[in-house]
Amino acid sequence: MAVYVGRWDCPTCGNVGVLGPETQCPNCGSPRPKNVKFYLPSEAELVKDAKRIKEAQAGVDWICGHCGNQNKAANTHCSSCGNVRDDDSGDENLQERDYATNEVPVGSFEKERTYHPEEPQYKNNQPKKKKNIFGRIAAAVTAFLATIFGFQALQKTVDVTVQDFKWERQVQVIHLEPVQRESWNLPQGAYNVQKFKAIKGYDKVLRGYENKQVQKRVKVGERTYVCGKIDKGNGYFADKYCTEPVYETRTETQRVPVYDQVPIYGTKYRFTIKDWVDKQPLYAGGQNHDAYWPELKQKGSDWKTGQRKEHYHVIVREDDGELHEEEVGPNYWASLDYNQKIPAKHSIILNFYYGLADENKGR
Question: What is the arithmetic mean of pLDDT over 337-341?
Answer without folding.
Answer: 96
